[in-house]
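Hi F.,

I've been meaning to write this up properly since the lab meeting, where we talked about keeping a consistent format for the predictions we share between groups. The idea is simple: the sequence comes first, exactly as it goes in, then the structure tokens exactly as they come out, then a line or two of notes. No screenshots and no reformatting. I'm using this chain as the first example so we have something concrete to point to.
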Amino acid sequence: MTSYLRAFISSCTDLPSEFQRHLNGLLTLDSRVNELQRQLDDAMVEQLRHMASTSGQEPPTKKQKQKDKDAEWKWKDAQGDPVLAKKIEENMNEILHISEEKMKRAQQIYDLVDQHIRKLDKDLKSFGAEVSKERERLGVTATSFLAKPAADSTKQKKDSQPKSPEVLYKEALAVADVGEPKYCYCNRISFGEMIACESEDCPIEWFHFSCVGLTEDNRPKGAWVCPDCQRKKK
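Output, unedited:
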């Protein structure tokens, strides 16, 4: 799972900057739309004033429309300023174009996230298949090593012998999750006693006691550095 996890994390490295780029683009488009809308409102008010001046009357009120149905038609017959009309049309077209661009940006953000989710799902399925093969090879099932209640737990502790690393591994594998990470030189999941390498540049970081020759008797009392990192320091 470590290889899958590292590959996935690597693929997500540029994700925050990609998000920021798309969001900044949306903010820029929003600012432009707000400015165009302000210009559009001003142009429409100015056009109404121009039409009122050319018609020789003020725009009909609701009461006037109710009294005289022709009043509305007289107002509609007023001529507008062609320059303002063109500006209004251009602003509306640009607002529509920017709205379409915002929809495209939103779809790109969705596709970006969906791409990483599908990759993670694929990796989880691949790792699950590997875990199943490993269980089959070792002849274990997901429940074969689940703990059972003991009749006399005190006596059991006294009579029990330390379990071998292989037994501990089988027990851990039997109950491992699909996304369980792998560690150590052996590239297996966590089981039994483990120890961390204190070197900041250690690519592995965690090790099983049995894989590095450690036991309860020779457990390090202070900082411990793995063999590979010790050789690098020499």
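Notes:
The chain has eight helices and two strands.
The two ends are 31 Å apart (CA to CA).

If this format works for you, I'll send the rest the same way.

G.
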